[in-house]
Amino acid sequence: MFKGSITALITPFTKGAIDEAGFQSFVEWQIAEGTDGVVPCGTTGESPTLSHEEHNRVVELCVEAAKGKIPVIAGAGSNSTSEAIALARHAKKAGADGIMVVTPYYNKPTQEGLFQHFKAIHDAVDLPLVIYNIPGRSVVDMSLDTMARLAKLPNIVGVKDATGDLNRPVRGRALLGEDFAQLTGDDGTCVAFLAHGGVGCISVSSNIAPRLCAELHDAWAAGNYARVFELRDLLMPLHDSMFVETSPGPVKYASKLIGKTSGELRLPLVEVSDATKLKVEAAVKALGLI
Asked: Which of 101, 135, 192, 222 has the most CB atoms lying inside 10 A of its own CB?
C-alpha cells in the first residue's frame, strides 16, 4: 500500500505560528515533484512541540492539499495510548489514508506493552497503521517477533524502520511476509534497504530534493540500477548534511535556502550552527538546488 519516496514533512512556522498557506504550498510542490506519499506530524514535523489543536490542523491541511493524489500517512504517535487513539481518530475523520505510530518514548514499555499499545490503537481506529520503530529517540526497540504478532492484525500494514540495522528487512520478510511494507527511515542506507527487501523510504532529504529522491525509487522499480547508484552517490552529501545536528534543524535551514520556508524552529530546537550551515549549503548547492 505504501511504497517509494515518502516525505516526512517539515512544519513551516512564521513568528511562532504554523504557516498554513506555506505548508499547503509545500505539499503541492512535493506532489508536483513526484513524491509518492507524505507524513505530516512526524519527528521531522516537530510534532512534540505542536499542541493537539495544531497537530490536528496540520493533518487537515495536508489532506486538503494532497487532494487524494498521493497517500497521507498522519503521525499519530504518543507515549499515552489514549492520546494516540485520539490523534488516530482525528486522522481518520480528516481523511488520512493511514497513520504512523511511534513506539512509546520515555515510558520504556516491555515487548508485551508495545504489543498491547499498538493493538489498542489498531482496535480503536479503522485505518492502515505503520509502526515507527526508532530506538535512538524512543529508547525502546520493537523486536521482529513483536512486530510479527502485530502484523497478524489486519490494519497493521508496515513499519518505518529507523534502527539502521540492515539485517532487519531480510529477516523481516521471513517473519512479516512480503506484503508487509518495510520502509526505511534512514536516507543514507535507502538503496541497501531496498536491496534487502524494503519497499520505500520515509525521507528527510526529500523535503529538499523530492524529484531526485522520487527518481531514485522510480529507477529502482524499473531495474535501472546504474541510475539508482548514480543518484545514491549524488544524494549522499545531502543525506549526511541533514543529520550533522539534531533533525529537523538542518532540513529546516535547507528549506530556507531553497525558498520554501522561513527555516524557523520551535524550542527546545534552535537554529543550527554556522559550521552546519556551511555543510548544508554546500550539499544543496552541489545538487543545483540554489
From this structure: 101
Q: Is 105 a catalytic residue?
A: no
Domain boundaries, the chain: 4-224
Q: Which CATH class is domain 4-224?
A: alpha beta
Amino acid at 109: P
List Cα–Cα distances, 95 to 60, 73, 100, 264, in angstroms.
8, 10, 14, 28
Query: Of the residues 3, 106, 132, 256, which is catalytic?
Result: 132
DSSP lists the bridge partners of residue 82 as none
* Average pLDDT score over residue span 180-186: 98
Helix and strand numbers, DSSP H then E, in the chain: 12, 10
**Per-residue pLDDT reduced to its tens digit, 90-132:** 999 999 999 999 999 999 999 999 999 999 999 999 999 999 9
Instruction: Give the integer Cα–Cα distance in Å for 63 and 30.
Output: 13
For residue 160, indicate whether it is catalytic: yes
**Average pLDDT value for residue range 30-50:** 98
Task: Give me the residue label for grid cell 543525506.
Answer: 239
- Placement of cell 506519499 in the chain: 37
99's grid cell? 497513520
Q: Of 67, 69, 152, 160, which one is the catalytic site residue?
A: 160
Is the whole model's pTM more than 0.85, yes or no? yes
- CA angle, corner 79, sides to 74 and 82, nearest 5? 75
Provide the 3-class DSSP secondary structure of residue 74.
Answer: strand
The kind and range of the H/E element at 133 are strand 129-133
pLDDT band at 1 (very low <50, low <70, confident <90, very high): confident
